[in-house]
Design brief:
The chain is built from 3 helices and no strands. It is an all-alpha fold. α1 packs antiparallel against α2. The radius of gyration is 20 Å and the shape is flat. The termini are far apart.
Length: about 80
């Protein structure tokens, strides 16, 4: 499976990244590189069996904290 994913990422690089390199726009090059490297790293870790914790619980706690602190005094007269 890792071989197939690597082929997909190589095809992304050939199709998308080469034109970005030719445009010589440094911001786009850096952004695309970071996104592709992060995605490939997560794919590689999942394929070798590393358990990656879900970010959903963290986002839920942050959202509840913000909502509770905004509406803490609501409804009191």
């Amino acid at each position: 499976m890792l071989f197939m994913c690597t082929l997909v990422y190589i095809s992304f690089l050939l199709i998308d990244f080469i034109p970005i390199l030719k445009s010589k726009n440094l911001k786009n090059i850096i952004l695309y590189s970071v996104i592709i490297l992060t995605a490939y790293t997560f794919t590689f870790l999942k394929d070798i069996g590393v358990k990656i914790p879900s970010i959903a619980n963290f986002l839920k706690e942050i959202t509840l904290f913000i909502v509770n602190s905004l509406f803490k005094g609501a409804g009191t007269a």
